[in-house]
Amino acid sequence: PPDEALFLLLHNEMVAGLYRAAEQGEGENGRCTTKLESMGFRVGQGLIERFTKDTARFTPPLDIMKFICKDFWTPPLKKQIDNLRTNHQGIYPPQDNKFRLLTQISAGKQYLEHAPKYLAFTCGPPPGGLLNLGIKSIVTPPLSSMPACK
C-alpha cells in the first residue's frame, strides 16, 4: 500500500537526515537517538488519544499492554506484536520477530550496530501512549538477531 511505503521512506529519511546533520557538525551524534525517541513519544501521545477516544477506561496493566500490542501497534507497523510476556513484576517485554523497520536493513548480523538508530523512533510511541493512559514506562530495545526485537 502507498501509505506503508510513505511511512518507510519518511522514517528512513528522518534517521538519515538527523545523523547526516550530526556528522556535519549541526548536532551531537548521541542526541540523534534521543531526538528520534522524543519525536516518537509525541506521536504516541497523539495516537493513543485518537485510538482511545471512544474506548472505556482500561484498569489492569495487562489489559493496557494487550491494547498497546494489538490495537496501538498494528496501524503504523501493519502487524501485531508476536509475543507478550510478563514477569509479574510490572515488566512486559513485547517481542516482534520480524520488525518491519529492521527487515529493510538486513536479516543478518552484519548491520546489527546500525539497528538502534532505526529503532529509536519506534521506542517513543509506546511510552508516549502509556503516559497518556497513566503509566510511566521505559522502552529499551535489546537486539540479538535481526530483524527481531523485544
TrEMBL record:
Record's keyword annotation contains Aminoacyl-tRNA synthetase: no
Question: What CDD domains does the record point to?
Answer: TRAPPC6A_Trs33
Q: Which Pfam families match?
A: TRAPP
As for subcellular location, the record says: Endoplasmic reticulum; Golgi apparatus, cis-Golgi network
Provide GO CC annotations from the record: cis-Golgi network; endoplasmic reticulum; trans-Golgi network; TRAPP complex
Principal location class: endoplasmic reticulum
- The reply to whether Ribosomal protein figures as a keyword in the UniProt entry is no
The alphabetized UniProt keywords are: Endoplasmic reticulum, Golgi apparatus, Neurogenesis
What the entry lists under Gene3D superfamilies is as follows: Trafficking protein particle complex subunit 3 (3.30.1380.20)
Read off the SUPFAM superfamilies from this record: Ligand-binding domain in the NO signalling and Golgi transport (SSF111126)
A Gene Ontology BP annotation from the UniProt entry: nervous system development
InterPro entries per UniProt = NO_sig/Golgi_transp_ligand-bd (IPR024096), TRAPP_component (IPR007194), TRAPPC6/Trs33 (IPR037992)
Role noted for this protein: Component of a transport protein particle (TRAPP) complex that may function in specific stages of inter-organelle traffic. Specifically involved in the early development of neural circuitry, likely by controlling the frequency and amplitude of intracellular calcium transients implicated in the regulation of neuron differentiation and survival.
Protein family: Belongs to the TRAPP small subunits family. BET3 subfamily.
The protein's name: Trafficking protein particle complex subunit 6B
Source species of the chain: Podilymbus podiceps
